[in-house]
Please model this.
Amino acid sequence: MAFVPPKETYSGKVYSVTIGTASKEVTFGGENVLPFHSFEGLTPNSPIIAYEIQDVPPTDWPENVQKPYKDVSNDPVSWAKFCQETLKARAIALRLIGTHPDRENRSPEDAAKTVRDVLSVIDMPLIILGSNHAEKDASVLVAAAEAAKDKNCIIGKAQEANYKTIIAAAMANNLKLIAMSELDINLAKQLNILITQMGFDKERLITDPMCSALGYGLEYTYSVMERIRLAALTQNDMTMQPPMIGDLGMYVWKVKETQAGETDMPQWGSAEERGIIWEAVTATALLLAGVELLIMRHPKAINALEQVMEELI
Amino acid sequence: MALTGVEIFKLLPKTNCKKCGFPTCLAFAMKLAQRQASLDLCPDVSEEAKQKLGEASAPPVRPIVLGVGDRAVKMGEETVLFRHEKRFVNPCVFALEIKDTLPEADVSRKVEEVLDSEIDRVGQKLRIDAIAIINDSKDVGKFEAAAKVVATKAPGIPVMICAANPQAAEAAVKLFADKKPIIYGADSENAEAMANIAKTYKATLGVTARGLDELSNLTEKVKSMGVEDMVIDSGAGKAKEILEYNTLIRRAAIKKNFKPLGYPVITFAQREDSLVEALISVIGVAKYSSIIVLSSIEKWKNLALFTLRQNIYTDPQVPMQVEQKIYRFREPTPDSPLFITTNFSLTYFIVSGEVENSKVPSYLAVMDCEGLSVLTAWAAGKFTAGKIAQFIKESSIENEIKHRELIIPGYVAILSGAIEDKLEGWKITVGPREANGIPAFLRSRMASKQ
Ligand code: B12
Ligand code: SF4
Model:
């Protein structure tokens, strides 16, 4: 029996988003097929991985992922430079975790200064993230957005509770925006609608359907992402067509499998490699589900993922 | 395409004789369409109908069993392309390759690794399921010798015998007669000889070709030689090809009911770098491979791959749950601490593991929250002060313990006052947020009590 490849044509397309400036700008999204399905359509851009850094030393990160940054992570500026120069990062994600009221409770002005300092030493695209405290983020991200004016950064995350203020800041300063909802396709859709109804250009939006780590709810994130992508492509649902972000490092590096030592868990093998593979496997699964932008921590996990992406293209 | 109930009905005797156990032929037809009944229940169905229905009612991906006994693994029978539509049915098999060019001691060591690979996670026993013995040497004697080591050391482990040379395949398969192995390596040149061996030893035949057109022709040819049980290799090497071919195979089988590709798929994921190999395997797990062949099985790698397989193959509609009750650890006494959590199996297994770890005899009250995690259940209004109070009262734990102290998860600290209001005479203690803080939490309690 002759085989006729059952190819699909889709009615929709994912928007492509460009971030950064001049020669270091990068573009992701733009495909009109499911992830890496280049055999039946266009996949003009490959996904981008951003290295995660933060405004305060990463004492809350497990030892094994602090290690690669131990000489630079005391200061976000040297940390950013290290990612750019030594690790050859294509993008950096700066998390302003120190602004969280339960942490150092840094002020919006401090946060804005950190953003300015980091931007002054790097020339690659920057993603600016709050501490996920909806209320505090509303003030922190406004200040951070001003500090990043016209640098074509991404800022986030806008959530249901604070999106109005953050959108205004992103628009006024010409930035791209992450919209985050909680693991539910309808909530993701609704937030994107609310944001575009306020006049925010839908082609400057990035959807964060919320991540979860391998073994800790990954299957939910995986399926929500897959469904969002299918809605964008097969139903041409414009509210689902922004590219998706997978902010996975912070979920991965808090689970037991990335922390427990080998003496406690001899049947789990080497702790260091276990942490790295946990992050890399989570990321690969999300790539297959449809993320175009990833935020990750361990350089070895990122390297392995890049090798696999090369094979996938 | 699968037939509808009405199409099936047209092929039945239409006598409504009820011998099938259903009130009418139509009712029976509907069950057949949903694959909830088997055609042989009707004694009067015609040969012609049998043939038509047999073809159409066969699952789009043929079920294949690898191995025998309690280590046997089932493959195939998949019905969807995306896991949110319906549960993926038979989790993919992980197989460790063992090349016959290795010294005997290394072959033995690898077999040991497979035997030792079992890990318990969320109440399931997970392991490397099979061994792929590879005729890398091209030598019949060497292959037979390696197969012998495997057969003697690990008689219960399912095997895949990989050889392009029919003589080598036959020499090895003899050692696994009646054990339902796979003989892999039937191609356009050796198909006939390989098919004969598969028939003689009742083995499944692994068929390999370059590309899907050639593969379809080859499975048809093998089928015409009388072999029905096959697993297929599209020749995919690079990740891009694995994704493309596996997707097209699954689509053809499910959406077009294209029989020549309706078999479980083998993926060879071996890479120089073990981490990269694991990530290639992720593609196989998520995207339709039924057997994934690995070159190494370090413990950290197994844990990650087993966990991924478990995640991808869980039922998207029903979270895994454990029974609501008071669980006891290390023979607790009336003074032992009492914890509470929800009945999501992941939550239960993490928390019980840590309670176990602390080595302190304890009670763990597990409350039915429809299989939701602590925070999800709280956000969904299922793990509330009122419900917790009611559960504790009804559990009769009050008859068993002397104290009246309940330790709640740190993430729901906010509930403590409200529970105290509703559970008269009880003191609520807020435990650590993450379960892995439980051993230290208990240690410092003991210290302060002394
Ligand atoms: C997967 C997931 C879901 C799945 C459900 C999975 C399930 N079976 O529970 C789905 C998609 C259905 C879901 C739905 C919702 N979710 Co939800 N979900 C998650 C997610 C990503 C992971 C949950 C998980 O599996 N955790 C792993 C388990 C093991 O954690 P756990 O039970 O809390 O146990 C840990 C600790 O609590 C502690 N522990 C547990 N028991 C005990 C006991 C004691 C004594 C001690 C000391 C410690 C302890 O140990 C464990 C590990 O250390 C989390 C975010 C996250 N990454 O945590 C959000 C999260 C829990 N969800 C959230 C929300 C809001 C919801 C929804 C209400 C919203 C929505 N999207 O519709 C719905 C409600 C569901 C409903 N039916 O209405 C919020 C809760 C926010 C809050 N603080 O109130 C979270 C935190 C996401 C967020 N950041 O906003 N969710
Ligand atoms: S046994 Fe056959 S003929 Fe009789 S009712 Fe059932 S389907 Fe109809």
Notes: Residues B 12-13, 15-20, 22, 25, 28, 42, 44 surround iron/sulfur cluster (ligand 2) (CB under 6 Å). Chain B touches chain A through 57 residues (CB under 8 Å). The longest strand of chain B covers residues 93-99. Residues 327 and 364 of chain B are 5 Å apart (CA to CA).
